[in-house]
Amino acid sequence: MQTHDEELLGFLLLFNTAELTTERKNAKIQLVNALVGSLSVAIETQYLLQEQKNLLNAFIELIAGAIDAKSAYTGGHCQRVPEITKMLAKAAVDVQDGPFADFTLSENEWEELHIACWLHDCGKITTPEFVVDKATKLELIYDRIHEIRMRFEVLKREKEIHSLRNRLPDSDDLAELQLAEEFRQLDEDFYFIAQCNVGGEFLSDEALARIRQIANYQWTRTLDDTAGISQAEWARKTRQAAPELPVQEAMLADKEEHIIYRDSKNH
């Protein structure tokens, strides 16, 4: 038996001990040739289907491997999810009582689960790089004009403080102690936020409550935050009317400008 390109598939051996006439023998040979041809097509089709599945799986795993390799911070996430999912599914199938007592998966369903596991993160292919590749929660592609603007804000505040201090005849020890305590609290709050930025996936309810409390801290912005920025960021910031300066800003806030809308052509 051979494939269409004459690759050997196997042999078909038939034995007939009866004496046959030449005509019957030729008829038998024609029947065997037809049978061999049908068997060859059936076997080759099975091989081709399996090779097609292998190619599809290899391509899927290649995509998942490329996604993992693309970001050093995911730690082989796409490689681990299929193994963990299959372990969970097998445990659910093996259980004999409880809500999963009647749960079972057919061979086709196992195959579907396998493909779904490997493809679960394929959307990252079209996800912007600065969203996928993050070492910390707050890391992103950042226009440093914001940092420079904040330095100017701090410099202006320092000059204002220096001027006010020069107007005071004598410093108030109680006020100094109160200021030192406020500085200490701000330092603790900052280092708490910094720790949350590099922490794991889970935050306790207490940590979330503290973040919300810190988010309500107010500071005064006196400079236009749309000056010197890119056209794309300007378009996001100007979705809403700009407030009159100076304006009180929250320490942490979700804003409309933070939302990156996907182009309709990519849906």
From TrEMBL:
Domain of life: Eukaryota
InterPro entries named among the record's database cross-references: Cyclic_di-GMP/3'3'-cGAMP_PDE, HD/PDEase_dom
Protein name: HD-GYP domain-containing protein
